[in-house]
Write a structure and sequence with these properties.
Blueprint lengths: L1 E5 H7 L1 H6 L1 E8 L10 E6 L17 H4 L3 E8 L2 E4 L7 E5 L1 H15 L7 H7 L2 E6 L23 E5 L3 E6 L5 H4 L3 E3 L21 H8 L7 H4 L5 H5 L6 E7 L6 E8 L20 H20 L10 H5 L6 H21 L1
Parallel strand pairs: 2-6, 6-7, 7-8
Antiparallel strand pairs: 1-9, 1-10, 2-3, 4-5, 4-12, 8-9, 11-12
Length: about 350
């Protein structure tokens, strides 16, 4: 069943939902962008439906709602500790299909990656419902169709913003009563069928080809181009790397809190071991690690689709204009070169 209502009625209709849920959505923050007098769009808690930015892709992803940049895990006093509190309300999260698919990918990493499940991620995800935002195909950095992340059926409500009104479709009966007095209309969410960008990712057939690909010289160009700033991984909706820090409250080192803080495999020193040894101490090696993890290792481990959802944020945020699509094309060419050489030999 579909409904429609105008902007002025939106908050009144969502009033009951605001009472029951904390609502997060992409929101514009004026004059807080990377450059002077530019805006930034990121996920934040909203107090009005009309605060939501529906038409421009957010600079940062929805993962920050479930996996915050800076999150307290527990507090400690001497030999005792107390786990941080879970959110008091369930969460209603406005997101596009690519971001919903990205959170499902994060779920595999936090909840299915070995023997233990990450309780901090799970306690939020288990109290989370999605509002599917209509997507018009994104911008010139999107390639979600190529990554099969342009569709999802994981939503409770679907919404589309028009010039003067909203269209709504409800799949979760919990929310039906909030909109039953609205004018009915035929509305079902539509999904992007074509992006400006597309990519075809070649499969790496065996470990021998993988090892040769790791040594291919095309990676070396990133020693000159990549500045190892980590912008790509911070904005990526599927990256999950973090470190932990202890915050000490006073001169007593046994009183404080432990925090989980975003980290990046692209930052120098991320993989530093005892004795100050680094496994990947060049930008090219870090880039190779990231790309092969996104487009080979994850799929091999979980026997599913690739880790990337094609949102294009890494392209948009990179200060050196490095395109992951161009990188994948170079990797495809390198794989072809290796396979052809093996045939000739």
């Amino acid at each position: 069943m579909g409904y429609k209502f105008n902007f002025a009625d939106a908050d009144r209709l969502f009033c009951n939902i605001f009472d029951k849920y904390d609502i997060y959505a992409p929101k514009k923050f004026p004059k807080q962008g990377r450059y002077s007098d530019t805006d930034i769009i990121k996920y934040a808690k909203i107090n009005s439906i009309n605060e939501i930015e529906f038409h421009i892709k957010s600079d940062y992803s929805a993962k920050e709602v479930l996996n915050p940049i800076n999150e307290t895990l527990f507090y400690f006093i001497e030999n005792e500790f107390r786990e941080s509190s879970a959110p008091k309300k369930p969460i209603l999260l406005f997101a596009r299909p690519c971001d919903i698919n990205a959170i499902e990918i994060q779920s595999k990493i936090f909840e299915e990656n070995g023997e233990f499940s990450d309780i901090y991620f799970t306690r939020i995800k288990n109290n989370l419902k999605f509002v599917l935002m209509d997507c018009n195909g994104g911008d010139d950095t999107c390639f979600c169709v190529s990554m099969n992340s342009n569709f999802t059926d994981n939503w409770a409500i679907a919404i589309k913003q028009l010039e003067n009104e909203y269209l709504l479709s409800i799949k979760d009966s919990e929310f039906t009563s909030d909109f039953e007095n609205c004018e009915q209309t035929d509305f079902s969410p539509e999904f992007v069928q074509q992006n400006t960008l597309s990519v075809n990712i070649k499969e790496i057939p065996n470990k021998e080809v993988l090892n040769k690909l790791k040594e291919h010289p095309f990676w070396l160009e990133y020693d000159k181009r990549c500045i190892s700033c980590g912008s790509c991984t911070v904005s990526c909706p599927t990256c999950t790397c973090f470190t932990t820090r202890d915050i000490i409250y006073s001169e007593n080192p046994k009183v404080g809190e432990r925090k989980r803080v975003y980290a990046s495999c692209q930052i120098e020193g991320f993989d530093q071991m005892a004795g100050q040894k680094e496994i990947r101490n060049k930008a090219s090696e870090r880039m190779r690690y990231k790309v092969l993890h996104k487009y080979h290792d994850y799929k091999e481990r979980f026997k599913t689709k690739h880790m990337c959802v094609g949102c294009g944020r890494c392209i948009h945020r990179c200060p050196e204009a490095i395109s992951i699509v161009s990188t994948l094309e170079k990797m495809n060419n390198a794989i072809d070169e290796i396979l052809n050489k093996d045939i000739q030999e």
